[in-house]
Please model this.
Amino acid sequence: MRTESVDILILGSGGAGLFAALHAYDQNPSLDILVVTKGLLGKSGCTRMVQGGFNVVLDPRDSIERHFTDTLKGGRYINDQELAWALVKDAPETINELETRVGCFFDRREDGTIHQKAFAGQSFDRTVHRGDLTGIEIMERLRDQVLGRGIHVLEEHRAVELVTEEDRVVGALVLDIRRGEFVGISARATLLATGGGPTMYKIAAPSLEKSEDGLALAYRAGALMRDMEMVQFHPTGLLAGAGRVTGSVLEEGLRGAGGYLFNARGERYMVHYDKEHLERATRDVVARAGYMEIMNGRHGPQGGVFIDVSHLGAAFVRKTFPGMVQRVKDIGCDLATGPVEVSPTAHFHMGGVAIDAAGHSSLLGLYVAGEDAGGVHGANRLGGNGVAESTIYGRRVGDALGREAMDLSLTITSEAEWERRAVHHTRFWRRGQGGNPAHLLLELKGLMWDRCGLVRREADLIACQESLEELEARVEHLSVGGDREYNLRWGDALNVESLITVSQMIVRSALVRTESRGSHYREDYPHEDHAHWLKTVYVQQSSESKTMQTMTRDIAFTRHIPEELKEVVNDVVPR
Amino acid sequence: MQVTVRVERSTGTASYSVDTKAQQTVLDVLFYIQNELDETLSFRCSCRVGMCGSCGMVINGKEGLACRTGLDRLGPVVTLQPMRHQGRIKDLVVDMGDFFSKYEAVRPYLTPRPEVQDPIVASPRSKLREAIDLGLECISCGLCLSACDVMTAVPEFLGPAALNRAYNLIADVRDDARDRRLAVVGQARSGVWQCHTHMSCVEVCPKNIAPTRAIAQLKQKLIVRRFMGHRERPIPKLQYIVKEGG
Model:
């Protein structure tokens, strides 16, 4: 087996992974840094798919305190306040670096300063963007800078296992997808930046290769996980019949600019769910409202509701949202002149590995940044805070890696040990006739959508848990054939295995939280219960029994007590 | 709709019969074949909405992104080939190493002028940005290089995407590597002079970018430089474009 040893191993090449690589390199160019990415460099993953933009305080009339309180309010107050604070505090310097050092150029106002547009759940228009396809600019330019520094990259390689020694992560077993061979990589420090991507739902937005691998890897290695019940559904996922464009997001700026949502009867249904904010309520509220309309039969021919921006004027829509107009045109409709059918779509995982503000996980040597991490967004992420998280935390954690990597020892895993571990991931090949992972994935998607989606009930969750056990058992009967080189079916099998592990964490945590908060809605506990549930739900694999354990801990109000919590929370306790 | 899909695979041409549904694309068909008919077929994709540029291929003889090519436009027989002028990894998966080594050769990364400490002030109408904005949003999919007629005769040609990127940076007041980049794109064998303005790149670009235009601009800059030395229009002084105080 090929083996390598490096100082810093970065898993993932989205905003978090590449920014971390740049910052670690710039801290210490002599560090041996290796970026491993499931697709092509900077092309796979979800930063690339960012449409709307990046929340940042640039206007003197705005303030980082306001961005902070908006973020906490959007997260229904169970964010880790230190993590959320780091996000808003670092946002201005991150945009500055993207513009002046990385080479991005964001849209301007008439006066030539950076334009900021309206997004939902925000008290100020603070979303920086490049048209309505912002992620392309950010990822192309970050990728260019990585090329410029000559950082070593392994494309179309995926991590299948983190290697631990006692409570330390000492590297990762990686599958070279092109050759169908494994590579054992020993590293002083490993950064998990594979992105989440809750694709275990029938309708889902993330890129197609996403399978929450990072979360499954971290869990199996024993890392402490948090907020796993918190899965964000974006309210306006495009419906395109049997086409794979289905589920892709029509960006939030459409609602920000004044777009309407209608049910099949032509009613602007948000009036019944949030009279004050209407379509500009936060994603959790708008997505659930759409789901309720759909479940109550007020849906269109494809089982969705409708977004309509035509009253804003066709010329305005075409100029402001060219990417969205194009995408809708691709499926034969016109966003500028009429309604388009949409559905809530699984979009983002607020939950993830528990970290501190420098990206340290509970395991020494394992750092986490971006969607693989949990805690920044609490129970619901604001639109525009996602790419902010991946880039800001990429920078922060890259700095930490640059400073700390050489203080961590390098433990070389033996070739025999690598070989032993690889056997497990090739088990699908030993079988003759067996299940098709693509079919298993479809079953999983239906199960999670129906039983652990936008509206949850105890009985459903218990049934879901049992079904997941059955699906997990069926992973052992999947079979893969053909050549090992670039074998997509093998990838499907590994993907569905990751997704089932993460689904189990979602369901377990959803059972624990007996209230409704943010994106987690329990029909049997329909209210937010501040008296009992200003808490984080943690998940961890027991090191002895290898079973899934959950625990809860009170939220630490280390910086700010929101007005509506003053009756239940007494004092700020600085960390 | 019943469609016959002919795929030029590493092992030869394979033919599949697929029953397609409305609003499906070439990418949907490839998934159907791989999931249900032939698990050994390989192709590459990621975002499925035309943002990542991973699924470029030659579709009925013309370059396109599989995810954005609707079947309704293609008729009852769909022929799929890997992109041209690039090595093949397997089936429809090409090795984009050649594309990216050309891209890297033009120094595609901003080399920041140290005095630019804050985002520049640039009105959407200003001449400063107009030239560049037309060429941004390249998703480095490689379709333009695959379609480029020059590549057959001159494999060293840097190609449309790399030259387009070079022009964007050469026209960017924030950049400090203008001269070095101009030297690269002006090279006789690999540079802009090889382009004969066939505009095949313009025809296939899924982002409606016109690399030919960027190449023409680069040629003009090189000619001006050749005959007028360095007395071309000066780069605007930063005090006019940098926001005071930030």
